[in-house]
Amino acid sequence: MSFKKSLIPLAVLAMTQQMVLAQDAAKLERVEVTGSLIKRTDKETPAVVQTITAEQIRKSGFGTVEELLRANSAIDSAGSIQDGAATGFVNGLATASLRGMGAQGTLVLVNGRRIAPAANVDVNFGRGTLLNINTIPKSAIERIEVLKDGASALYGSDAIAGVINYILKKEFNGLDASASFGSADDGVGQTANASIAYGLGSLEDKGFSLYGGIDVSKRDRVMHSELKDKGLYDHYNAYRNLNGETTRFTPDSIASRWANYYRVPPSLTGSTPLDGRNVANNDVSGANYLGTMPGCPAELTVGQGVANRPAGFTNAQASLRTGSCRYVLDDKAEAVSDQDRISGQLRANLKLGSSWTGYADLMLGRTKSTSLNAERAITTTLASQQVPLVIITPKLDGSLAQRGGIVLPVTHPDNPTRGTANPQPVQLMYRFHDLPALDINEQTATRFALGAEGSLGAWDIDTALLYSRMDNKRTQKNRVRSSLLDASIAAGTYRFNGEVNTAAAIASVAQDAINDGDSSILSVDVRAGRELFAMAGGQASLAVGAEARREEFNANADANYLAGDYVGLVANLASGKRNAYAAFGELSLPVVKALEVQAALRFENYSDFGSSTTGKLGFKWNLLPQFLIMRGTASTGFRAPAISQIGNASTVSFNNFQDKRYFDPIRCNTSNAANPVSRADPPDLRDCNLLNFTQGVPLAQRPGNLPTMIAANPDLKPETSKAASVGFVFSPTRNFDAGLSYWYIERNKEIRLQRSSDILDAYLANPANSAQIVRNPNPGTWLPGQANSGPILAVIRKYDNFNFTKTAGLDFDLNARFPTQEIGRFTLAVNGTLTKRFDEQILAGTAPRDLLGSSTSEVPKLKGNVRLGWDVGAWSSWVRHNHTSQLARIGTTEPCLSSSSAAGVYRRENGSCYVGAERSWDMGVSYTGFKNWVLAANVLNLTDDYGRSIDIPSSFNFWDSGTASQIGRRYNVSVSYKMD
């Protein structure tokens, strides 16, 4: 039989199916699908929309919706904040990022409408707008629709890479309750979740319906000390030792409960021979060490439980002084924070005549995360009479808050030289052991919608009044205040003798530091759609709408923040409000039976920066009806500057740069390129490593991140974007379908913080470009004979519009069902993303950087999973394999591959020049043999895989730091009850 003749039966079958489906379509309810405002019976639109149902969420095995979304192949790690542990300015906050474009390029909706952003100024990531997905009740979700395409023409700002739309349940009859418990190996990281929902009434039968539900969850804290059995711990320590770093969990801090004390010399210049080494006088193990307060346990005392030269010490490092007391920072290093969540939804629907329905929708959520940190120390740096101020913190007004360490006068009761033959002031390296270092973050979400749906003549109308608000409060417990500490030292109220102080004594030095904020959206919109006229392929349809929106944002800090009185804390402020008005429309044209064309246009005007017009074209072509569909889109998009970026905002952050090392042109002697040294005496680590470059630099020689002062820019322009996609959906039978889609996104005028590296490049090229460089004004820090030559303390940065990011790739999916009567029903699902490019150009005139497959972008070349399910009788089981390809570390991987150093060779031989590939396995089983009950159990990361890590695999640098996945193998059991 010829190929042409073989198509005849297929064509006849296709025509028959089309006729039957056309008859059934009239009976089907038309619904709105994310990516189109026109209600339709066919859920395959020109844009790719992935639907995740409530049943799929339950069967996924993931403890939270956040984890489920992060497993999606189109969602990356770089732009998605995880809520596991405190990350800079936020905790308890979870966001999602599509295509590596950051959370600011992914719009999150609830029931097709916006939610208020978190009132956090997240300058570390430069995202600006953070949409928290942690406060949405899991039990209220009917489905999640992930639109993997630009959609600003329909939804406005932020929908550059796509949209994640949470569709909540509108109506439910009966009772639905569930509970689950999870834990990692050895009972670590336990979690507990419970939910209950109840609904009554029916719009069709009774003219009303009411639905409500509540979710609660509890997550236990996980410390790094509980994860020593994870990863290749011995390999990791061997690598650290070869790289000039001590073994993990070595007592590594000189600041302990039992203070080490030092003289306050006229100067810290010079060095003194000790233990056969010339030890700099500014070294805490140097000649200025006088002794240690009594009481230090033997296991923390140098010369007893702590070696004078722990493994990993380089020849240049001074030996620890016998008798000094140390502290193990890792004992208080937290991997996952303690967290409590509660959220709920209440939905009421009321029939308003024969063609209208009114509804009220209330959603509330609260997330409280409590992080535990090491007890705080003021400083581990020595001061001198010449340079007494060793703690320097930038303030929002551009000035510097400066203070010295803890210096006890000879009259203080805890000064160990008091009453001796040589009484003198002493400075302490001390840890405030009775000030628990808790960081409490509370995020509270409120969302209320009041609306009506119905028809007016030929128009289908949906209108709603929406109020969405996010409140956050961050409380850093027991922060030492500079003014209180000075007064307490003078009065002797707080004791530094290792004993626990009274509440009054603690209050004499410390106070809770509080940041709070709120953001809100108040909007009213109306959307209307109707059929227009008949075309060859059906009825042309139109949807139009308008929206008015008021946005407000406030992030505040208490007065002590503003004064710079909290030692070591910086303040971040932002406030502003704006109005936005939009008009939009969409047109669907069924040109012929097999071809649908769509067009959308949106005009939006903001009160703070101006207007934006975006458009979208799309088509869907049934090449072989119900067998093969071709579809594609082309669109433009935009992102409005966040209020914290364009409004009244001032922020302090920290910055480093790992692409290359920067030297201070005044203070660093680079005549010996292999060993640049500071010209200062004593030397300053910052002089020859301004941005804390770490590759090949031992830990003891790293200065830490550079403070930066940041201001908003009222002249910012919105980001713009172009996006395109084309793909196929192949469905030869009802039990098999496959899809392949090519996508391209280009984002221009990107809103970023100026990079410290670019500011330093300009300064090094021309010293006249010094306006953004902040040097220490204290003449005691200047080089001899050189005015204004103090060390660089900070860099001033601002938000600005930069160049572009371009990314492209392929999405693929396959779903197959194999029903058999004998052994049950098998299902196979394959989903993945193959990214082909991810290019970035920040400054015009520079070469674009290829960041695909790098840890800088965290966009892997391949990410996907394969899931095999088996249902037989009342049993349902599944197994899933997850894969994410390895990532290169820019500035690190290439040198590692050719390194001749012992540490480099060790990394290479152990396969650690790259961030490792993830190849983990999950499995689960459920049973429905008891009426109304579902019992389920699953195991995630079955093989306890730790391949996705940096350097040598270990729990301490596992790639997904701060998330539940870093604790390795996890078990979960659940039970649910549903009665209609």
From TrEMBL:
Localisation: Cell outer membrane
Q: What are the TonB-dependent receptor plug domain coordinates in residue numbering?
A: 43-163
The record's listing under Pfam families reads: Plug, TonB_dep_Rec_b-barrel
Cross-referenced InterPro entries: Beta-barrel_TonB (IPR000531), Beta-barrel_TonB_sf (IPR036942), Plug_dom (IPR012910), Plug_dom_sf (IPR037066), TonB-dep_rcpt-like (IPR039426)
Question: In the UniProt record, does the keyword Aminoacyl-tRNA synthetase occur?
Answer: no
| Domain TonB-dependent receptor-like beta-barrel positions | 440-942
Recite the UniProt keywords alphabetically: Cell outer membrane, Membrane, Receptor, Signal, TonB box, Transmembrane, Transmembrane beta strand, Transport
Recorded topology in the membrane: Multi-pass membrane protein
Q: What's a single GO CC term here?
A: cell outer membrane
Say yes or no: keyword Ribosomal protein present.
no
Major site of localization recorded for this protein: membrane
Specify the signal sequence span. Answer: 1-22
> Which family does this protein fall into?
Belongs to the TonB-dependent receptor family.
Q: Note the PANTHER family from the entry.
A: PTHR47234, TONB-DEPENDENT RECEPTOR
Q: What is this protein called?
A: TonB-dependent receptor
Tell me the organism. Inhella proteolytica
